Amino acid sequence: MAGPGDLEPTHFPARRAATVALHRLNVAHGSPFRVFGLQQVHKASVEDVAAAGRKYSLDLSVTDWAAGSAGPALRCSAEVLFSRTEQSSGPEVQLRCEALQKINSTAEDHAFYQKYLAPASAVSAQHLPDSYGNMSEEMQPFWRLARVAASFIMLRESSENTEFNMAQVASITQQESSDKQLMLDYVVLLHDLPSQEIIQWKLLVSWSPDRGVRVLQTEWQPRCPHATEPPN
Amino acid sequence: MKGLLVLTALFVAVFGKVTFEGDQVLRITAKNAEQIALLKELPEETLGLDYWMLPSHASLPVDVHVPFHSLQAVRAFLGYNQIQYRVMIDNLQDVVDAEEREMVKYRSLPRSTDDFVYTNYHDLNSINSFMDMLVAENSNLVSKFEIGKSYEGRSLDVLKFSTGANRPGIWIDTGIHSREWITTASAIWSAKKIVTDYGRDPVLTDILNNYDIFLEIIANPDGFAYTHSNDRMWRKTRKPNPGSSCVGVDPNRNWEVGFGGPGASSNPCSQTYHGPSVHSEPEVKAIVDFVKSHGKLKAFLSIHSYSQMLLYPYGYTRTSAKDQAELHELARKAVSELQSLYNTAYTYGSVITTIYQADGITIDWTYDQGIKYSYTFELRDTGRYGFLLPADQIVPTAEETWLALMAIMEHTKNNPY
Fold first, then answer.
1. Of A2, A197, B37, B198, which shows the fewest CB atoms inside 10 Å?
2. Which of A37, A225, A227 sits opposite B384 (nearest CB)?
3. Distance separating the N- and C-terminal Cα atoms of chain B
4. Does B101 have pLDDT greater than 80?
5. SS3 state of residue B2
6. pLDDT value, residue B370
């Protein structure tokens, strides 16, 4: 029996809420070898919560992009609350995924960590992926790390009227490791589907297998409007 | 002999040179027989000299390729003996590199559409040459014509696939939003598919025996050129906006139906800026004029990326299109065909309910012109790579999308109106 708050799971209101839940999931559990993407929304509904806002209830499946096509889908349920008042911290998300508690950092995470923690390491790159969608094998964990860091911003900036993805990593510059954390300076391009805008953010990110991803500094950067002189 | 001693003193041995980096080619002008004799005494092998023109007479120049490690010694020798020379090639490796680049360019220029690389993204020149080759190879089936010029004066070209005169038509456009490269790449593959399958595939053959197919591969060439030269993320046209430093109009918000509504922006700096007036963009006007003058288009398919959706009107209002039920069912069928190939999941529905409210869009106008089968596609993916879809997904995307296009074209043919 369809309830009054039931939403078409494939349409944008449910999908936007699901995207927010995914950002939250990546903030909590993302790593250079784990980034979750939405596979499918199975069921969705929304209700007004008095003064608080609008609460979406979702039943969804997610997959780990790092696991490739071999990866299993994880079933999750989520509640996403978009507040009526201007929140600086973004929507609130409650999330439960099966088998989530069993996810620990992997051997790959540790190997990656050891390799790039070395004092001489000074990774730097631009345009990941490049215009043709290509990215070297070596850079993929750095891209995934950027994607997780971007999730912090995307979560914070989300509303019922946005749907964010990371369009590209414009640049990455490794900083000197600090306190046993990998330190990375990223410039990421986000894409918002409804407005079609490309939004640029500079992020200072730290990561270790133990502490996970932390976004230490964020700075919005204006994109040059590429103005030309109007004809006289 | 003194000269040689100076030389030996300065000589440095080098092992295993593999590049020409830093090597120079000198043109030496000996002024008399004595200088020629001196030059002949230079230890060629030890210095690694490679004469392009051997010393013979004072009236003839001596050209010699000098490896980097011997340059100082050779120059000292020439200077000490007051033998005139000039540097003809400053760094031989640069010349070799430039030649290599030319050769690669020449090697990879396809000489036919069978040679063309469908598994990569191409630039404007390459795509234009593809179209010309396709027409030349299939002149009984394909022609190319211009429907107008872009703001920057580029030709707005359309391929016409036709087997007879005065036929009703099916229109497909790609690349109206320039950063959506996968759409243009898929169109190229589809164009080749059409000429390959005509006469072989009964369904396509039947379609083409009754309908013309019009394919505008690059609907926004100015934007497309800009994505190659300046900004891969450029979406709009490249027409300046008076009074603003921001350039461009969203060509999918510039159409008459619903123009200027909340599903578009009135800010020239916005990605969804609707433009100063209805059909103000020459890229849009060209299609409008063509549709009106043709008068018998029966399907209109405008292809975008990304999101994996098949959408029908309307974008500007929640009021259902009069043919909603049929459009919905046909979308279901087309998506099912698409999915059957690689299990790519697509969503379908009206624009406003499925993706977002969008005002002044192409298919709302074409539908209200009476073109019933008006659809917008959003191709792969759903956000992981977005606009930067890896090139190895071009052919799979084109293949699966083709199945959906065929489903719509077949239905159009079977349901004339």
1. A2
2. A37
3. 99
4. no
5. helix
6. 98
Q: Could A133 and B393 be called an inter-chain contact, meaning their C-beta atoms sit closer than 8 Å?
A: yes
Q: What percent of chain B has pLDDT over 90?
A: 84
Question: Is the backbone of residue B258 left (phi > 0), alpha (psi -120 to 50) or beta?
Answer: left
Residue B172 has what pLDDT? 98
Locate B361 and state its tokens: 């869009």
Residue whose tokens read 């406003």 = B352
User: Which residues is B191 bridged to in the sheet?
Assistant: none
Task: Return the residue in B388, B392, B394, B397 with the most chain A beta carbons within 10 A, the one to mutate for interface testing.
Answer: B388
Task: Check residue A223 and report its DSSP letter.
Answer: P
Residue of B nearest to A162 (CA): B356
What letter represents residue A106's amino acid?
Answer: T
pLDDT at A3: 79
A103 close contact with B: CB closer than 8 A: no
Least confident among A164-178, B10-24, B178-192, B366-380: B10-24
β pairing state of B155-161 and A36-49: unpaired
Give the residue among B331, B256, B318 at the shortest CA–CA distance from B288: B256
Cβ contacts below 8 Å, chain A against chain B, sum to 96
d(Cα A188, Cα B409) in Å, to the nearest integer?
41
pLDDT above 90 (res B14): no
Across the interface, which of A10, A65, A129 has its CB nearest the CB of B390?
Answer: A129
Question: What per-residue confidence (pLDDT) applies to A218?
Answer: 97
- So what's the pLDDT on residue B350? 98
- Any CB–CB contact under 8 A between A126 and chain B? no
Contact yes or no for B88/B65 (Cβ under 8 A): no
- Expressed in percent and rounded to 5, the helix, strand and coil fractions of chain B are 40, 20, 40
Q: List, by residue number, the catalytic residues of B.
A: 378
pLDDT of B103 higher than 90? no
pLDDT more than 70, % of chain B = 94
Q: Backbone phi, then psi, for A130, in 5-degree steps? A: -80, -175
* Chain A residues lying within 8 Å of B120, measured CB to CB: 132
Question: What is the Cα–Cα distance from A43 to A61, expressed in whole angstroms?
Answer: 10
Beta carbons of A148 and A31 less than 8 angstroms apart: yes
From the CA of A157, how many Å to the nearest CA of chain B? 17
Confidence check: pLDDT of B104 > 80: no
Q: What is the pLDDT of residue A52?
A: 81
Q: How many CA atoms lie within 13 A of B150 on its CB side?
A: 24
Structure tokens at A200: 């640029």
A134 part of contact set with chain B, CB < 8 Å: yes
CA distance A222 to chain B (A): 12
Any A CB within 8 A of B339 CB: no
CB contact under 8 A, A131 and B307: no
Which residues from A are below 8 Å from B239, CB to CB? Answer: none
Using alpha carbons, select from A204, A149, A145 the residue that is nearest to residue A23: A149
* A65 in contact with chain B, both atoms CB, cutoff 8 A: yes
Nearest to A228 among B247, B269, B391 (CB): B247
Residue B131 has pLDDT above 70, yes or no: yes
CB contact under 8 A, B120 and A131: no
B312 CB within 8 Å of a chain A CB? no
The DSSP letter of residue B299 is E
- Give every residue of chain A whose pLDDT is below 50, as ranges: 227-232
* Nearest by CB: B233 against A165, A189, A228: A189
Q: pLDDT for B35-91, tens place per residue?
A: 999 999 999 988 999 999 999 888 888 999 999 889 989 999 999 999 999 888 888
One-letter amino acid at B159 equals: L
